[in-house]
Amino acid sequence: MLSFLRRLxxxxxxxxxxxxxxxxxNLPIYQQLGLRKSYFSxxxxxxxxxxxxxxxxxxxxxxxxxxxxxxAFRQLPAASQASLRAFDEQGFAVLPGFFIxxxxxxxxxxxxxxxxxxxISLRYRNKFxxxxxxxxxxxxxxxxxxxxxxxxxxxxxxxxxxxxxxxxGSEQHTHSDSIxxxxxxxxxxxxxxVALEDITPDNGPLHxxxxxxxxxxxxxxxxxxxxxxxxxxxxxxxxxxxxxAGQVIAQGxxxxxxxxxxxxxxxxxxxxxxGGEPHRDxxxxxxxxxxxxxxxxxxxxHEITQRPALL
Length: 311
Ligand SMILES: O=C(O)CCC(=O)C(=O)O
Description:
Elements: H1 4-7, H2 9-16, H3 20-23, H4 27-33, H5 63-68, H6 71-74, H7 78-85, H8 87-90, E1 92-95, H9 101-116, E2 128-129, H10 136-143, H11 145-154, E3 158-166, E4 182-184, E5 189-195, E6 206-208, H12 237-250, E7 256-258, E8 265-269, E9 274-276, E10 288-295, E11 299-302, E12 307-308
Antiparallel strand pairs: 1-8, 2-3, 3-10, 4-11, 5-8, 5-10, 6-7, 6-9, 11-12
Bound molecules: 2-oxoglutaric acid.
């Protein structure tokens, strides 16, 4: 259970008071939807009860048209194009060999240099967070054709919000990113995962549940974690993970494991259930990187902590 201080919404709001430039993105949409919020106010799915699920979302052309209009898409091989065209149906797309060996080597070198010079260190056990803010090479990888493709998939201009680099498997339990990086209307985010070496069954491959993006978005109310006007919910993250594990069984979902080759990219939908397999062989690394993108046409926030997202 979270401590009282960590649950206090006022402390987050006080921090956010000094972040106007990075939080102002939500203001026009709050206004459009008639939500009486400041840029620093707590925000969560509770605030959207009573709004139409698509309220405020600009209409977009169908996926096939959006992709066809995207130059980065037109340069892709046929297999990658077909996978992207099936994104709405599958909840993911695989782009084999999207990054060539030289690009992957540059990314690995750049991360190693950040680590060697102590410009970055591990957080949350095994994650190098936000390396793209410190490495032009890593930023370019996330900004390249990848952001254009994610924008086409979302139907809205995507902003690179976060990068995470791994040297070992994340071993993260199955989850939907929408509990962490949330939007209103739902679905305004996507992620692109990059294999920075060949992935084996024993170095903690990514796993995912095809089609799970069509399930409801499970948010705070679904595991009694809504909190109050003053406090965020008191549930540990493990309770969310247990809830999702229950849904996987209840819905009879079939897990797939992504045995990627170096340079392959896997783009997933905001609500695709995914995670990391156990990293069984400590002699192997699992060099990989994931970029999380938000659409600026949506309210962008963090459901668990009920904070607006710092873009
Ligand atoms: O890389 C992995 O194993 C999983 C990463 C993940 O779940 C995420 O970034 O949301």
